Amino acid sequence: MLGVAAASAAVVLSASTSALACNIRDFSATPECDGDKGVIKVTDVDATGVTATVAVYLENNGSDLRKVGEQEVKGSLTGTTITFAEDWKPNAEYRIHVTAGKLVNDDISPNLTTPSKACKTEESPSPSPSEPESSPSPSPSPSDSAATPQPSPSPSDSSTPITPVNNAPTPAVGDSHLAETGANSNTGLIAGIAAALVVIGGAAIFFGMRRKGSSNR
Prior knowledge:
The protein is α+β, with helices and mostly antiparallel strands and about 220 residues long. It has a domain of about 90 residues: Interleukin-17 receptor A/B, fibronectin-III-like domain 2 (Immunoglobulin-like, Sandwich), CATH 2.60.40. It is about 30% helix and about 25% strand. The protein is built from 4 helices and 8 strands, in the order αββββββββααα. Strand 1 and strand 2 form a beta hairpin. It is rod-shaped, with a radius of gyration of 69 Å.
């Protein structure tokens, strides 16, 4: 009876120890948002407090695309959570691998898949307001152009040569012909005296010749 009781106690103790040992079921992962940024949180509920190493990988068609990061965690009965900063995209897939000494060397199954909605919504650019079309300015009507005074040309802009002003005195109307010929009002008197002298000279010559002829006879 003592042997049976001891064997039973050993089996129970072994089962209890196996139940308390660290295993992959003690780890879980969730995608969350920290404001506009995405994060991946891994929680360890291993009551034995075994130190484990957690590595997160971004998957692409069943292969590791890149390593997001790696951290150590020591579990607790209430759970210990570590956070990986990862601005994940919608419907992305991540592989979480856990290593805890010789107890755990496995992936959390299934792989982590992010939600279909990202933490930050892309804002569509608002269309810029179109510029109003400028209306053509109305052409001036004939009445407007006629009413507008046109500037008179200045003396410097005129092409007509300027005639110099003659400051000489203008002769009187009655004396215009005399000024042109060089005669004056005494012309008739002088002509009469000249004619008389011609007549007197001719008569003197005539009488002188007659006297000379008479003396020669």
